[in-house]
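Hey, I'm writing a tutorial for new members on how sequence and structure tokens pair up, and I'd like a real worked example in the thread rather than a made-up one. If someone can provide the structure for the chain below, I'll link this post from the tutorial.
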Amino acid sequence: MKVTIKSKSHLTVPLQIQRRAGIKTGDRVEFRISGGIINIVTSLPWADDEYTPAQRRAIDARLARAAKGPYHGPFENSDDAIDFLRKQIRSRRSAERKTAWRLSDRAIEALADAPRNIQRAFEKQLRLSSGNLQRLQDDSYCIEDVIPHPK
């Protein structure tokens, strides 16, 4: 789409272009200029704005605790992680394996206390997640806790 700029007018981005770019009313945008090219980039909101200070402290405390461990793994694939979980549920002993999945002791204990159908559903979701995440490399995934859904 071409537009003619007049001497006393502002530059307006047509609605069709805004829609295609995903720009909505209230979004913050940044103008970047390089040579004769103007790039308009949407600014993402900061996570600090989304939480109260108390919520941010709770999140930071959990992240700090998660960084310390303890974890088991890494596992080479989701089937290895599931086999490990089954052994842990029976014996409650930890065994280290090479993997991208890490499970905290709390997650293992919570899963061991869950009904068998919940354990199977968790294993199924772990397999699905592993299949979806195969495209990513050099990442580790941690399951910190398994929390029952409130009813």
